[in-house]
Specification:
- The complex is a heterodimer of chains A (281) and B (288).
- With 281 residues, chain A is mostly helical.
- In chain A, helix 3 crosses helix 11, helix 4 packs antiparallel against helix 9 and helix 9 packs antiparallel against helix 11.
- Chain A contains eleven helices and no strands.
- The termini of chain A are far apart.
- Chain B contains eleven helices and no strands.
- Chain B is elongated.
- By secondary structure, chain B is mainly α.
- The longest helix of chain B is centred in the C-terminal third of the chain and has 36 residues.
- The chains are: A mainly alpha (281), B mainly alpha (288).
- At the A-B interface, helix 1, helix 2, helix 5, helix 6 and helix 9 of A face helix 1, helix 5, helix 6, helix 9 and helix 10 of B.
Chain lengths: 281, 288
């Protein structure tokens, strides 16, 4: 009871502080925003712990953060091995191959409006399909190790990236292209100096979407067969053994990896497309 | 016609590549068989044999189409082997997750637009929540809901689908509810409109185009969520379960047929949402 009451009190107190910060001039600044978001995150953890203890929820249903934390600290080696297997070998290599393939394909069909008109609707449609369903097929083809995971990721990220790249290459306006023509720029000059930079906001939009998809693909593919290491493998076996604290530890790693990947892409985006209105401070 | 021609050409190209891939991948098995009985086969003999295997590495399109047809029209709709039945199970899960995601997304968006503190505290976490691969959570959501005695297998699937679909609704509704400009808001202010009235008469109608634009993304996300929810969990019904069965029992045809059934379902849902959008826009008097 005391845990429950404490958690609710903490929640109300944190909420009051957040409301004050949000209303004050501090809430307009970066630091204030970070504080509010951070406090909200802490509140969620405290509420979680309070509810788990207050209602006496057994650890096989929902372990509290106080159990998950030590599990993470105690299994760093395993978590690191899983991270390397799934994220670095599976997701990142597939992501890189898929991105390069989509990039090259987009430029290759750039000169043929006919192919573009045909490919765009199909690409849009395929992006909406549950491609994860291909995971068992690709595991059958490429074996259990990370190659099959990378293949799933390639297929998953290819079409969203392709659609964004093709749309991006068409994004320049008539005036800019005419200007290039008056300078008698060749096709390749116009491509590298005008149209590729103009396509970058679209490309990064696609990359951000693909980053999440890549992790999903790599983990799902492991449900269909994997060596005895990897995040998807660990999650499915630990769920079977009711080791939910380990599952939550893997989820924490997955969340961290996903956010980090997204953050890195956003950072590169702010370097590459510094000129774009959405990047202006 | 001018729009259909390029699409058809690309489709033909894909089918041709698919056939070529089927010949290439399945020929290994044919050569293998021939070597075992001590004969050699010519290429002209190999190609027909790659088209009719029962367990091909890559089934050619006509085999998949035949299996799909068998699954859709060859059974009674209530049969456990009918793809219509499994498709319906997946469709039901998708719709539940879709509805749940919309309610959650719109509710959060309303709170975020109304209270600044909600925006500052919830919005960053909503973004982070989408970088967590939901499939990591899927097996756990299932075990937990089993243990706390949720008998209904639909609910965990719907939760996963809702988790994937609430975010696009949230983002576009926040944008949409903020779409009215200061002049319009000021006008309502001079009318002495209350917050609730402003919301109902100005903000809500203004957000509708944004809302419908997000629905197409959301319905596809909900379907993916439902299928992922069926995959790792030993579910026995639904297109995802069908894919898993095909994979585990080494029946690639079942797997491919389920995959295409899912694709057709996705296409149907997107068309349906597009139709609803057009009807709603027409009713609200938008230029077509």
């Amino acid at each position: 009871m005391i845990w429950l009451l404490g958690a609710v009190l903490f929640w109300l107190a944190a909420w009051a502080v957040n409301a004050r910060i949000a209303a004050s001039p501090l809430g307009q600044r970066q630091a204030g925003r970070l504080m509010v978001a951070g406090l909200f995150g802490i509140t969620v953890l405290v509420l979680w712990e309070g509810l788990v203890r207050g209602f006496g929820v057994p650890a096989v249903i929902l372990p509290g953060p106080s159990i998950i934390g030590p599990t993470i600290a105690g299994n760093l080696g395993t978590l690191w091995a899983d991270f390397v297997q799934t994220v670095i070998k599976g997701a990142l290599s597939g992501f890189a191959i898929g991105a390069v393939a989509a990039f090259v394909t987009a430029i290759a069909i750039d000169r043929s409006p006919f192919l573009q008109k045909g490919l765009l609707p199909i690409g849009n449609f395929v992006s909406a399909l549950p491609i994860v369903g291909l995971a068992p097929v690709l595991v059958m083809w490429f074996g259990f190790d990370w190659q099959s995971k990378a293949a799933v990721v390639v297929v998953m990220v290819f079409f969203p990236l392709l659609v964004n790249m093709v749309a991006g290459l068409q994004a320049t306006d008539r005036l800019s292209r005419d200007l290039m023509a008056t300078w008698s720029a060749s096709y390749w000059q116009a491509l590298f100096k005008l149209r590729l930079p103009a396509a970058m906001p679209f490309a990064f939009n696609g990359l951000k979407i693909a980053a999440t998809l890549a992790l999903i693909g790599a983990i799902v593919a492991e449900f269909f067969g994997s060596p005895i290491v990897g995040m998807g493998f660990r999650i499915s076996t630990e769920v079977g053994r009711l080791g939910l604290d380990m599952v939550w530890a893997e989820i924490a790693v997955a969340a961290l990896a996903g956010s980090a990947l997204y953050g890195v892409i956003a950072l590169i985006e702010s370097w590459v497309t510094f000129w774009h209105p959405s990047q202006r401070k | 016609m001018t729009r259909a021609l390029p699409v058809l050409t690309v489709l033909m190209l894909i089918v041709a590549l698919w056939y070529a891939g089927a010949v290439w991948l399945n020929s290994t098995w044919v050569y293998d068989q021939a070597q075992r009985v001590g004969t050699s086969v010519t290429l002209a003999e190999v190609i027909p044999q790659t088209m009719t295997q029962t367990r091909p590495l890559l089934p050619p399109p006509h085999q998949v189409a035949a299996e799909l047809w068998k699954g859709v029209a060859g059974q009674k709709v209530t049969s456990k082997r009918s793809l219509v039945y499994h498709g319906y199970v997946t469709f039901r899960g998708t719709m539940m997750g879709f509805a749940l995601g919309i309610v959650l997304g719109v509710g959060l968006a309303m709170a975020i637009v109304r209270y600044r503190v909600m925006e500052l505290s919830v919005m960053p976490w909503a973004i982070i929540s989408q970088t967590i691969p939901i499939v990591a959570l899927a097996p756990m959501i299932l075990t937990v809901s089993n243990q706390i005695g949720v008998e209904n297998r639909e609910i965990p699937k719907a939760i996963i689908a809702a988790y994937l679909s609430f975010f696009p609704v949230l983002v576009s509704m926040v944008k949409g509810l903020r779409a009215p400009d200061a002049m319009q808001l000021d006008l309502l202010c001079t009318y002495g409109a209350s917050d609730a009235q402003t919301f109902r008469k100005l903000r809500l109608p203004a957000s509708m185009p944004y809302f419908f634009a997000s629905l197409k993304v959301v319905v596809a996300a909900a379907l993916i969520g439902t299928i992922v929810g069926e995959l790792p969990t030993g579910a026995i019904e639904g297109l995802g379960a069908r894919m898993l069965i095909g994979s585990q029992f080494g029946e690639p045809l079942i797997m491919w047929a389920a995959l295409f059934a899912a694709a057709i379902l996705a296409g149907g849902l997107i068309l349906l949402v597009g139709l609803i959008e057009r009807l709603a826009r027409a009713r609200m008097g938008a230029p077509a």
